[in-house]
Amino acid sequence: MKIQLINIKTPDGKLTIETPRAFFGLTAADELTVTPNADHEEYIHFADLSPRPKFYIQQRTGNIVAGIDLDHLVFANTSITLFNSSVLEAASQYPYYSQESEPEEWELAAEALERALYRIDPLAVEPGTYWYEFRWSVAIGDYME
Fold first, then answer.
1. Structural domain boundaries in the chain
2. From residue 36, how far is each of 4, 22, 28, 103 by CA, in Å?
């Protein structure tokens, strides 16, 4: 799977980030938007995940988080650079297995992906994170070629 990285800017052009144009259900936003949560902490929206979740950069920390809204977020990566590296790694391993594969092969593929993602960003594969859930989707056969 080939991933194209693109630049997205805020409407005023003051901030630009590089992010994947598309990755499975993820699609880059047309422009960066800054949105505060209820506590006035700012998040930069940069991508959507079909059907509803969005990806954000937590402005205070630089962490990448995802969620259906700013009150329901899960951690993805410690930076946009490591998020991009994680996407590129996950894409480079696809297809994870064939249509004829068995559950044991699914788990082996998931373990290989988890090890690779751990080398990029160890916190990204902790329980409850975006990549942890992605890894389990691979393990149950959701990503056949």
1. 5-77, 84-139
2. 29, 25, 20, 43
